[in-house]
Design goal:
- The chain is of the alpha/beta class and 467 residues long.
- It folds into 2 domains: 201 residues, Rossmann fold (3-Layer(aba) Sandwich), CATH 3.40.50.2300; 154 residues, 3-Layer(aba) Sandwich (Rossmann fold), CATH 3.40.50.2300.
- It is 33% helix and 19% strand.
- It is globular.
Length: 467
Amino acid sequence: MTALSPLAMTFWAPASAQSKARRLDKSRNNGENRSNKDCMRRYTVKPWWQVMTIALIVPLLGLPLLTACGGGDDDDGGGTPTGTPTTTVPAKKVKITIGNHTDLTGPASVAMQTVNMGLEDVVRYYNDNNLIPGVEVEALKYDGMLNPSRDIPGWQWLKERGADLITAWFMLQPVTLGPLAAQDKMPLFVANAPSKLLVTPGYTFATAPPSEDLMWNLIKWVIENDWDYQTKGPAKVGLAADEGGDPSGFSKAFEKYAAMYPDRMQWEGAQVIPVGSYLWASAVEGLKDCDYIYVPNVWPMFVKDYAGAGHTKAKFLGSDSQMSFFKIGDDMKLWPKIDGMLFVAQSEWWGEDAEYPRFSEQLMSQYRSGSEDKIKADKGYNSVGNGMLMLEAIRNAAAAVGPENVDSQAIYEGAQSVAISFDGLERFSFSPTKRIGVDRLAIYEADSAAKGTVRVSEWFPVERMPE
């Protein structure tokens, strides 16, 4: 699969960032033109993506609207109806419950507010538009407080209240919940998981690449496109993380790259602190000579301590996870400190001329009117995509066995034929032999003036870290 040409997608970039955008050319692959969507744009509700099953490719949001295209209130189908009108009693819908094992009051609760909103809104959209005929989907929240001791009780709580599938968001949750998913034969959709847990057949589905693959793609792009190793020699790269942030998975990729390309990168090691500590002074000291530092998910406290110690050398690195904490960083006035920070991302930033952010913004406007600017302060609302993967699994299940027969096993089977495309590129998919949902990534750069990010690469296929 080839990457999307910059000529086929206009991405958002303020004038101050135009020079940054030119770096797209350096990482460009042969491009593909965007598919023609004129036929879809004639509908009142615009379908912003395509969803494909193994056997069929259809515009997802077009389905419930096709019948409306045959006429309207003034269209009687060619003649005046006769006879006595009849009243049709709508069939009772089957309720399917997504258990949301989240954080409502713990350390990640601020960031998770918009994550929960995105999931709830896309569920509501599917229900409102009858995208899964015969099925009403509910999202039920459990407050795990980002406390590992609440992982298993949360699973049981959601299961007892009728959850048919469960989603979890934090690094270590798959380790404790994965065995329960296999035992109960209940699909578990996680935002991240170690590769060893993503076996097939298996009930754990990851909506993001494993840490080692994510970091491999990030550091490979950074060294090849942002660092001049031929002139400067190997870049010194380090990592700051807490124990709950899977530091071993992240470190593995950096260590592997440094071992394979010692002339390009020197690994300076990982500085790890206990979960919930947020005391980064010693980590800052250990990483002060780095050219690049991969920062913790909750990065503002680390960046504050790094800048407070008078250090300016390193360029910071991150992923979608770190973008979820922009709101906190803005409150702490840290945007100037992360200007130029590079992120590996699986979804667009707000304002890009692309189908996925347009659809997410449509949901915001429809369900969160007046709160759009607040929601767009970070990327948490892009949990819309996580929700779509689960909802499409449910939709496939209902189509295969009938709404009345949808259960956890049917959803598990349905998940294995989900694939989602945006702008003509397949971006997310599962299969009987694939439990990692993301197919493509891109690199974004922080722009402090705009308080956002700019895409500086194509959407490139995910490359697995070499064994």
